[in-house]
C-alpha cells in the first residue's frame, strides 16, 4: 500500500460513533469507514491504488460489522494530525485462522521505524481477536526493507505467494497450546 507523498488528513471519527483504535508509542492506527474509503479512492490518482481501494471497499461491504478486516487502516502520528501511511488486512481470518496484512509508509516518513511499529501494533491487535492463529504478509521479491520489517516483527519466511516471498507469524497463545 505504498504512497508517493505524505497525506495530511484529520482522523477524527464521526460524532458519537466509537472508533476502533490501536495505539503504539508513536502511532495511532484506525480503520477507515466506508465513507472515508470512498473519499480516499476518489482522491487517488494511481490506477493500481484505485483498484486496490475498490477491492477494499468491496470487502468492507461484504463484511458488515467486521469492516476492519477489509479496510485500509490509517497510520497516523500519535498527535492525530498527520497520516503517514496505511496498513490493513486482505480479508477476515480464514477457516484455519490465517489473516494476511499489507502495509506502506509514505516516502517522507520511511526509515524511521514506523512500518515496524505499525506492523507490530496490528499483529498484537490480531492476537486479541477470536480465531486468529497466524498472520501472513507478502513482499515483492526485491523488497529487502519490507522483509527486514517483517523479520523484526517475528515473521519467518514461509514459501512464496502471488506477490513474492511469503512470511508468517504464529499466534504465541496458539503455539503454546499445541506444545
Question: How are the SSEs placed, and which strands pair?
Answer:
Elements: E1 22-23, E2 27-31, H1 34-43, H2 47-61, E3 72-77, E4 83-89, E5 98-105, H3 114-127, E6 134-138, H4 144-152, E7 156-160, E8 165-170, H5 172-178
Parallel strand pairs: 5-6
Antiparallel strand pairs: 1-2, 2-3, 3-4, 4-5, 6-8, 7-8
Supply the key terms.
179 residues, alpha+beta, Aminopeptidase, eight-stranded mixed sheet, 25% strand, disordered N terminus
Q: What does it look like?
A:
- The protein has helices at 34-43, 47-61, 114-127, 144-152, 172-178, and strands at residues 22-23, 27-31, 72-77, 83-89, 98-105, 134-138, 156-160, 165-170.
- It has one domain: Gcn5-related N-acetyltransferase (GNAT) (Aminopeptidase).
- The chain is 31% helix and 25% strand.
- It starts with 21 loop residues before the first strand and ends with a helix.
- The longest helix has 15 residues, at 47-61.
- It has 179 residues and is of the alpha+beta class.
- The radius of gyration is 16 Å and the shape is globular.
Mean pLDDT: 89
> Stretches where pLDDT falls below 50 for ≥5 residues?
1-16
Total beta-strand segments: 8
Order of helices and strands: EEHHEEEHEHEEH
Distance between termini?
A: 36 Å
Task: Determine the structural class based on helices, strands and strand pairing.
Answer: alpha+beta
Report the β-strand fraction as a percent range. Answer: 15-25%
Can you give the helix content as a percent range? Answer: 25-40%
Outline the biggest β-sheet: 8 strands, mixed
- Going by CATH, the homologous superfamily would be Gcn5-related N-acetyltransferase (GNAT)
With strands numbered from the N-terminus, the spatial order across the biggest sheet is 1-2-3-4-5-6-8-7
Tell me the overall shape: globular
CATH architecture: 3-Layer(aba) Sandwich
CATH top level?
Alpha Beta
Using only CA atoms, what is the Rg? Answer: 16 Å
CATH topology: Aminopeptidase
User: In the residues, how many domains can be counted?
Assistant: 1
Helix segment count? 5
Amino acid at each position: 500500500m505504498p504512497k508517493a507523498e505524505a497525506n495530511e488528513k484529520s482522523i477524527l471519527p464521526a460524532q458519537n460513533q466509537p472508533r476502533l483504535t490501536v495505539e503504539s508509542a508513536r502511532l495511532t492506527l484506525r480503520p477507515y469507514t466506508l465513507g472515508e474509503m470512498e473519499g480516499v479512492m476518489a482522491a487517488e490518482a494511481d490506477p493500481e491504488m484505485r483498484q486496490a481501494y475498490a477491492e477494499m471497499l468491496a470487502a468492507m461491504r461484504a463484511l458488515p460489522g467486521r469492516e476492519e478486516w477489509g479496510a485500509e487502516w490509517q497510520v497516523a502520528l500519535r498527535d492525530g494530525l498527520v497520516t503517514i501511511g496505511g496498513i490493513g488486512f486482505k480479508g477476515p481470518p480464514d477457516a484455519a485462522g490465517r489473516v494476511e496484512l499489507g502495509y506502506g509508509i509514505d516516502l517522507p516518513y520511511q526509515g524511521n521505524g514506523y512500518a515496524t511499529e505499525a506492523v507490530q501494533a496490528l499483529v498484537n491487535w490480531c492476537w486479541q481477536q477470536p480465531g486468529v492463529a497466524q498472520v501472513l504478509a507478502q513482499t515483492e521479491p526485491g523488497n529487502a526493507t519490507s522483509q527486514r520489517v517483517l523479520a523484526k516483527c517475528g515473521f519467518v519466511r514461509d514459501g512464496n505467494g502471488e506477490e513474492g516471498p511469503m512470511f508468517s507469524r504464529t499466534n504465541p497463545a496458539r503455539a503454546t497450546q499445541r506444545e
